[in-house]
Amino acid sequence: TVLFLVQIPELAKCSVLMRERAKVEEKIQAMQCAGLSRLQVISDFDMTLTRFAHNGIRVPTTHIILNNKLLLSEDCLKKIRELHNTFYPVEIDANMTTEEKLPHMVEWWNNSHKLLIQQKIRKDLLFQAVTESNVMLRDGYKAFFDHLYEQRVPLLVFSAGIGDVLEEVMRQNHVFHPNIHVVSNYMDFDDTGVLQAFEGQLIHTFNKGEVAVSQTAGLKQMQGRPNVLLLGDSLGDLTMADGVAEPQNILTIGFLNDQVEERKKSYVNSFDIVLVEDETMDVPNVILRNILTLRDDK
């Protein structure tokens, strides 16, 4: 089957930017010919699988879902807001290098996690915090998750957010399928179900590459799948496939949600496909449908 992108109307929308259309076409064709058994999907969570905003209001990230009076004191909420206001502009600053941002991200994540630990968050309240939040997965999310599950394509959700919270978001949306593996910052609860620490290596926006090499390289369900569809909303997400052994085709899709004009050039130069202020999974879904049209008879 020869695939021409002109047959994919979703890719002709003005919100879809591509530096090299022919290269995108080649990768989709190569992935299509290799078939299902050679494909895996690696995706960021916050602002990639979840929406960035709805009706002009920001949708909460997994960290911000915890900003609930059930879980946190007024003083703690104030401090977390101050951290966000200080460090989020650094995270998305188009004029700073990743190296310059690194110490700031470590400081932001460590300070946020310390504050959460001090609050002695109860595990049994996470369900309610997610229910009461206005977190939303992107339009078309169900087709995305269900299609991968039905076709037995593994999905690695790779998040600098909070693993316990994002699992709960997927569970409440009925898409936390067995083909999903999550690498994220997980809470460590004591015997009484109270938060006492965070487990393992800290994952922030810009160290996903080293985490990928140390934590995802040995994942059995990902082995023998050298073709990767990678979804992210930050340039730091481009390193999420660093743990893939002998990759053949990596097709990267970047959601450009914020500071569009300032960051457009760097995104177009870095991702194969850039989706500008697009709150849907339409483009990933149509690409998956095209890759998965050739059934695996091997």
TrEMBL record:
Does this UniProt record's set of keywords contain Secreted?
no
Q: Gene encoding this chain?
A: LOC114481657
Quote the subcellular location field of this record: Cytoplasm
Question: What Enzyme Commission number(s) apply to this enzyme?
Answer: 3.1.3.5
What the entry lists under Pfam families is as follows: UMPH-1
Provide the family line.
Answer: Belongs to the pyrimidine 5'-nucleotidase family.
Complexes and interactors: Monomer.
UniProt catalytic activity:
a ribonucleoside 5'-phosphate + H2O = a ribonucleoside + phosphate; N(7)-methyl-GMP + H2O = N(7)-methylguanosine + phosphate; CMP + H2O = cytidine + phosphate
Q: What phylogenetic lineage does the species belong to?
A: Eukaryota, Metazoa, Chordata, Craniata, Vertebrata
GO BP annotations of the record are: nucleotide metabolic process
Keywords noted in UniProt: Cytoplasm, Hydrolase, Magnesium, Metal-binding, Nucleotide metabolism, Nucleotide-binding
Purpose: Specifically hydrolyzes 7-methylguanosine monophosphate (m(7)GMP) to 7-methylguanosine and inorganic phosphate. The specific activity for m(7)GMP may protect cells against undesired salvage of m(7)GMP and its incorporation into nucleic acids. Also has weak activity for CMP. UMP and purine nucleotides are poor substrates.
Record keyword Plastid present: no
User: Native species of this protein?
Assistant: Gouania willdenowi
Q: Name one GO cellular component term.
A: cytoplasm
Question: What general EC class does the enzyme of this chain belong to?
Answer: hydrolase
Drop me one GO molecular function for this one. magnesium ion binding
Query: Under which name does UniProt file this protein?
Result: 5'-nucleotidase
Question: Which InterPro entries is this protein grouped with?
Answer: HAD-like_sf, HAD_sf, Pyrimidine_nucleotidase_eu
Q: What is its main location?
A: cytoplasm
